[in-house]
Write a structure and sequence with these properties.
It is built from 16 helices and 17 strands. The longest helix is centred in the first third of the chain and has 18 residues. The protein is α/β, with parallel strands linked by helices and 490 residues long. The strands form 5 sheets. It has a 6-stranded mixed β-sheet with strand order 9-8-12-13-15-14, with helices on one face. A 5-stranded parallel β-sheet has the order 2-1-3-4-5, sandwiched between helices. It folds into 4 domains: 148 residues, Rossmann fold, CATH 3.40.50; 59 residues, no CATH class; 155 residues, Heat Shock Protein 90, CATH 3.30.565; 69 residues, Arc Repressor Mutant, subunit A. Strand 4, helix 4 and strand 5 form a beta-alpha-beta unit.
Length: 490
């Protein structure tokens, strides 16, 4: 570890990058590798109000920093009596004190860029290498790569992060040019990816920061390798469908999916969707009948994407997708970044990916949308489907996302004061999807009169819906909408 941990100064027009600055600080202090080496990240707006009037404060912080990190956007910023903005003053101070300067040019619309900002960028271009970024995901990736390079250059990072390290024994011949070409075409269409059609594999990998010298990195092989498991055996996804609500053998079905991460994502998602219920609507609005799954497809995909993107790839454990009668669990080897809590995941929070160079291509190809919003989208689509919000937990060295297949979770059932017979019936329904009065009697040992009374009571509570009036076809199913009168509805 470095004898002296790094102080980083973030410079930009504050109003233009208010959220970006705050989220970038959280990333630098929370990313597992960088957090070991970064001591402090200075943002001028976090100074006490009494200090805000002292114009020399931020320049003294530039003098104290180890790395000046400049984000140059479209605005130049407010000007002093000499017509110079704080951003330019900060850059000049970093230059005169010979600080390491990392410059990121935000956006590509030069017609929008202020004249003085263009001149500042031209000056910076003559002094040092700078990188262009189009969004926060790209900024995260570029900053991460730059600081890892700085740490390795100063010999303070003996073991590089997994996603930046060269893949031992791999060459460019182990990268599939066809997969890279498909990725580049998709990224151009979805994200205006700035790589020309027909670009060589080396060119695309260089643009993504996925080459270590002339060797592909671990990330390059995981995303675009012809045979990723030849180099990283645990980089696979295990999918299991259980008969009931416990993880007990024998399983109903089990598959281990290999290949690149894009393939694993598609295969694991299809595994889940093929095992859960799917309803088909009517053709009232179009010639195609709408269909929906009991678990929102977007939430299933998001849970699996998060696991593949953020897992600890130095772990020998695999991503596991476990489907039970009442829930879906996605197990991701690893833990939340130090700057995030479980509670943060349900509200706006900065993106702190464990593997930024894996997350960036997933964003470019459209699998990840706005950085840091994945858990909130899972919550939103589950609630819209009348399901409980997903639960997030850290257990047994893994981060676990749970999606509930119906709203009658254990926590809800505990508030309903149901008798043992009724609880057995709920468990039966979760396994079989429906229950008749006769099946209720056989499962609980109740008399016909007691069975009818118990089922009617649950129907009145809004827990069950009766299908069919009388006869052998009459049965009950779990209500698709939470009971309004039930305590603590999700």
């Amino acid at each position: 570890m470095a004898a002296t941990r790094l102080k980083i100064f973030i410079s930009s027009v504050q109003n233009e990058f208010e959220t970006v600055r705050r989220d970038l600080k959280a990333f630098l202090l929370g990313e597992p590798t960088l957090s070991l080496f970064v001591e402090d990240v200075f943002l001028f707006e976090e100074l006490p109000a009494a200090d805000q009037q002292v114009s020399q404060v931020y320049l003294s912080e530039v003098e104290r920093c180890d790395i000046y990190l400049g984000i140059f956007g479209y605005d130049y910023g407010s000007e002093d009596a000499r017509g110079v903005s704080p951003t330019e003053h900060e850059y000049n101070c970093a230059t005169s004190h010979k600080k390491t300067r990392l410059i990121y040019i935000w956006g590509a619309d030069e017609d929008r860029r202020a004249r003085k900002m263009k001149k500042l960028i031209q000056r910076a271009s003559g002094d040092l290498i700078r990188r262009r970024v189009a969004d926060f995901s790209a900024l995260n990736s570029e900053v991460y790569r730059s600081i890892v390079h700085y740490l390795r250059l100063h010999k303070t990072l003996p073991v590089p992060p997994f996603d930046t390290a060269p893949c031992d024994g791999a060459t460019l011949a182990d990268v599939s040019s066809a997969r890279l070409e498909r990725f580049a075409e998709t990224a151009r269409r979805k994200r205006d990816y700035m790589v020309e059609q027909g670009a060589s594999p080396r060119s695309v990998l260089t643009h993504l920061n996925l080459l270590a010298g002339s060797h592909p990195t671990n990330t390059a092989i995981l995303l675009f390798g012809s045979d990723p498991q030849r180099f990283h055996r645990p980089a696979e996804t295990k999918c299991v469908s259980c008969y009931g609500m416990e993880y007990i053998r024998p399983f109903a079905s089990q598959h281990v999916y290999t290949g690149d991460l894009f393939q694993q994502l598609e295969q694991a998602r299809d595994f889940v969707l093929s095992k859960i219920n799917r309803s088909v609507g009517t053709r009232a609005a179009s010639n195609t009948a709408p269909s929906s799954y009991e678990l929102p497809e977007e939430a299933v995909s998001e849970a699996i994407i998060n696991a593949l993107a953020h897992r600890d790839y130095y772990s020998n454990a695999s991503v596991e997708v476990r489907l039970f009668a009442d829930r879906l669990e996605v197990w991701n080897p690893g833990s939340l970044p130090a700057t995030l809590t479980i509670e943060d995941l349900s509200r706006d929070h900065p993106s702190v990916p464990n593997n930024p160079l894996i997350a960036e291509p997933l964003f470019l190809s459209g699998y990840i949308e706005k950085a840091g919003s994945g858990t909130q989208r899972m919550i939103k689509v589950c609630l819209a489907a009348n399901l409980p919000a997903p639960t997030f937990e850290q257990r047994q060295g893994s981060f676990i996302v749970t999606l509930w297949r119906d709203w009658l979770t254990d926590d809800v059932l505990a508030t309903l004061n149901l008798n043992e017979r009724q609880l057995k019936a709920i468990a039966f329904l979760k396994l079989h999807g429906r229950i008749t009065t006769r099946e209720y009697r056989e499962a609980t040992g109740a008399s016909e009169r007691t069975a009818s009374r118990d089922l009617s009571a649950m129907e009145k509570l809004g827990l069950l819906d009766r299908v069919g009036a009388t006869g052998r076809s009459a049965h009950y199913v779990i209500s698709t909408k939470p009971a309004k009168n039930a305590p603590n509805p999700p």
